[in-house]
Amino acid sequence: MHPVSFPLHSPRLRRSALALALLSAFSAACADEASTGLDTVVVTATRTEQSEASTLSALTVIDRADIERLQPQSLQDLLRGTPGLSIANNGGPGKNTSLFLRGSEAGHVLVLIDGVKIGSATAGVPAIQDIPVDQIERIEIVRGPFSSLYGSEAIGGVIQIFTRRAQGAFEPNFSIGVGSYNEVRADAGVAGKGEQGWYSAQLAHENTTGINACRGQASPGAGCFTDEPDHDGYRTNSLSLQGGYRFNSAWEADAHVLRTDAHSEYDGSYANQADDEQHVAGARVRYRPTDKLTLTFNAGQSADLSENFKDGVYAGTFNTHRDLGSLQGDIGVGGGLFTLGYDWQRDRVGGDTEYAISRRIDDAVFGQWQQNFGTQSLQASARHDDNSQFGGKTTGSLLWGWDFSNTLRFTASTGTAYKAPTFNDLYYPYYGNPDLRPENSRSFELGLRGTPAWGKWSLHAFENRVDDLIAYDAALFAPGNIARARIRGVEAVAGFTLADWDWAATATWLDPRNQSDDANHGNQLPRRARDSVRLDADRRFGRLSAGASVYAANQRFDDVGNTRRLGGYALTDLRVAYAVSADWKLQLSANNVFDRRYETAAFYNQPGRNFMLTASWRPAGAR
Fold first, then answer.
1. Under a CB-based contact definition with an 8 Å cutoff, are residues 565 and 594 in contact?
2. 155 vs 101: CA distance, rounded Å
3. Do 319 and 352 form a contact (C-beta atoms < 8 A)?
4. Does residue 603 come out as left (phi exceeding 0), alpha (psi in the -120 to 50 range) or beta?
5. Residue of 517, 598, 493 whose CA lies nearest to 556
6. Which residues fall within 8 angstroms of residue 139, CB to CB, at 6 or more apart?
7. d(CA 214, CA 89)
8. CA gap 159, 306 in Å, rounded
9. φ, ψ dihedrals at 424, nearest 5°
10. Cβ 118 vs Cβ 280: under 8 Å
């Protein structure tokens, strides 16, 4: 075991802590009363329903009101500035996008849609660039190790996306928008709920000519290995359906479907066009005979399908399917809550690439205990996975909270997590290594959270050590478990009202270090910014609302050798909205208003100054 320590002597850390302290003191002295909104019900942190205020994990919730206020153009725009999150994008709308949560690898974050695990079993990452924000009702982001509840991938944390759902008896909606790069967006839907049933249906469309995704390749191992100075367009259509019914006080059932079809153009020597499909479907039956017992059965499937072309000529197909099932029992005993469950997962690979093994099954059992002891809270969980490819894996976590007062909570946690090798890692022809072991992590975290009258704030410090990272081993001419990493970080969040403006601020300091015994020892892990901040300000003026967001990140590197430096950058976005009537609203967003040129992946361009004008309709009675 490595000792856990935090670099409290670091000048950067001292400056971050000082800045947060000054911000909190200033806000407390000057702010008006603000609603904390901490009574929101969340499920991702424990796989059970609990209030946001009672969670022991570092948590961020983005709801539909936030989405409509911020007017993001994509999911990556919406997530930008989330504490602990770095994003790398390969050339604008619809291009490959990677998420690095708390400095871990892109494949170390688990993504769920309505409780169904998504992602490619070959590439090992989800295609989040193809999930339209118009289909999203809410996002819950929990940071830290969660393999003890969810299994593989949850080293950096879990992001769960909930699709649009009914809030009232009958809710039709429609919007259409036009913007820069010949962009056209439209969505329409209807939702409703009664005493026993509910339903929702939403269609969305987006089409843009895009930007020139890549400016070529200047050195080996970076860029797109070709020079194609053209506009790389993107088009997507999506449909989400869901419905449910409560048969009586004990039984209820629901089902949901999300399908996205996307066409993306990009720059590449082997392929430069892709037709991608994502399917997510799930069903749930819940039996709750008493307040002390709930049994839940879930079944679902996700698919990641991709056909690639070079100038319109077929180049290859990669298809992966994931079948899922779970049975979970929640039992109230002695004022606490015990959870026992079984998860089953089958991954299948298809296409025109022959893998030595094209399917695998994972069986898992897990348990969790949640208990309050006066002003203290405890959450303990453990899980054992039995995978047909690499055998068994056991993980666990322990979280503790202490309420110093009604407005101040201290938390401490520790946990282990893992990431299973992908099919490409194991079996890709002339590359894979079937002897690979899972990647492993162990982490420790301290947190402090306050909910004073003026708003809310939180501070979390963590260290995560990841061993057996999978990287190319020149001695084997194949991937191997040869790398290690040590990641330290501090995340700060504050929200308050000042001078009739609603303010939200986040700041992240990361020290993601390569600890491998090679020439890269001590280097910064690639594509993670060490420091990043975001500040949002919004205000209403009768029918008019206005807001601004500023996001800044310092330099990062694009390679493990830290030879390709990506400069720091700052982005400023402006937005206004006007309620033309009780039913109609106009919105205008201006993004990257200072036209900054920047890259989050070497040689891949990002959009310059751009605009979007949207008209939306929703009957006043449906709000």
1. no
2. 9
3. no
4. left
5. 598
6. 60, 61, 62, 78, 79, 159, 160, 161, 162
7. 11
8. 23
9. -65, -45
10. yes
* pLDDT at position 218: 60
User: DSSP letters along 452-465, please?
Assistant: -TTEEEEEEEEEEE
- Cα separation of 280 and 577, whole Å? 33
pLDDT of 22 reads 39
> Taking the chain (623 residues) in consecutive chunks of 10 residues, what is each chunk's mean pLDDT?
38 43 40 47 96 95 96 96 96 95 96 96 93 96 98 97 92 96 97 95 97 81 85 97 96 98 94 96 98 97 96 94 98 96 97 93 98 96 94 96 96 97 93 93 97 96 96 81 95 96 97 93 94 97 97 94 94 98 97 97 96 95 60
pLDDT for res 168:
87
- The predicted pLDDT at position 471 comes to 86
Other residues' Cβ atoms within 10 Å of the Cβ of residue 314: 12
Number of CB atoms found within 10 A of residue 565's CB: 12
Dihedral angle computed from the Cα positions of residues 128, 134, 139 and 144, in that order, rounded to the nearest 10 degrees = 20
What is the SS3 assignment for 306-347?
Answer: EEEEECCEEEEEEEEEEEEEEEEEEEEECCEEEEEEEEEEEE
- Structure letter (DSSP) for residue 285: E
SS3 52: helix
Q: Are strands 376-387 and 391-405 parallel, antiparallel or unpaired?
A: antiparallel
H helix runs in 141-205, sequence order: 147-150
Residue 181: partners with Cβ closer than 8 Å, 6 or more residues away: 93, 208, 209, 210, 211, 231, 607, 610
How many beta carbons lie within 10 A of that of residue 567, not counting itself? 11
CA atoms within 13 A on the CB side of 506: 21
Task: Say which CATH topology domain 11-622 has.
Answer: Maltoporin; Chain A (2.40.170)
Q: What gap in Å lies between CA 380 and CA 137, rounded to an integer?
A: 30
Task: Please choose, from the candidates 502, 440, 485, 471, the residue with its C-alpha nearest in 3D space to the C-alpha of residue 152.
Answer: 440
Q: Do 184 and 177 touch, CB atoms closer than 8 A?
A: yes
Which amino acid is residue 401, in one-letter code? G
Q: Where in 388-407 does DSSP place strands (E)?
A: 391-405
List of residues 6+ apart from 454 with CB closer than 8 A:
27, 28, 31, 32, 33, 34, 496, 497
Q: What is the DSSP string of 464-530?
A: EEEEEEEEEETTTTEEEEEEEEEEEEEEEEEEEEETTEEEEEEEEEEEEEE--SSTTTTPBPTT--S
